[in-house]
Amino acid sequence: MKRYCLALDLVNDAKMIAEYEEHHRVPRPEIRKSILDAGITQMELYRIENRLFMIMETVDDFSFETKTAMDAANPDVQVWEQLMWKYQQALPSAKEGEKWILMDKIFALV
């Protein structure tokens, strides 16, 4: 198992944030399937103000490149991603077209 943590901002508007959360209360089956098919075994989203934090646990051979290619070939995921961009905004340090940014692990209590 591998664990990844990523961050993203939402548009800073209370109504839009509420809508975004509503979209995530009951995941669309086709989106849930695409996540599982990519080798993501657990996914959690957390929010503080308009900042999102995602924790993903994956199979050992998970690849962001493979997930990106699978998403690009899946029309259901493309519709979902277009809808989500309505609510999301890239972090200031994001590269062109980049949404979720992988966070660096700086501490672990073991």
Architecture overview:
Helices cover 37% and strands 27% of the residues. The chain has 4 helices and 5 strands; from the N terminus they run E-H-H-E-E-H-H-E-E. Strands 1, 2, 3, 4 and 5 form a 5-stranded antiparallel sheet that branches. The longest helix has 12 residues, at 14-25. The mean pLDDT is 96.
List the uncertain runs: none
By helix and strand content, what is the structural category?
alpha+beta
Q: H/E order of the elements?
A: EHHEEHHEE
- Overall shape: it is globular
Question: Helix count, per DSSP?
Answer: 4
Could you give the count of β-strands?
5
Brief sketch in words of this structure:
The chain has 110 residues and is an alpha+beta fold. It has helices at residues 14-25, 29-37, 64-72, 75-85; strands spanning 2-10, 40-48, 51-58, 88-89, 101-102.
List the helices and strands and how they pair.
Layout: E1 2-10, H1 14-25, H2 29-37, E2 40-48, E3 51-58, H3 64-72, H4 75-85, E4 88-89, E5 101-102
Antiparallel strand pairs: 1-3, 1-4, 1-5, 2-3
Key words describing this protein structure:
110 residues; alpha+beta; five-stranded antiparallel β-sheet; 27% strand
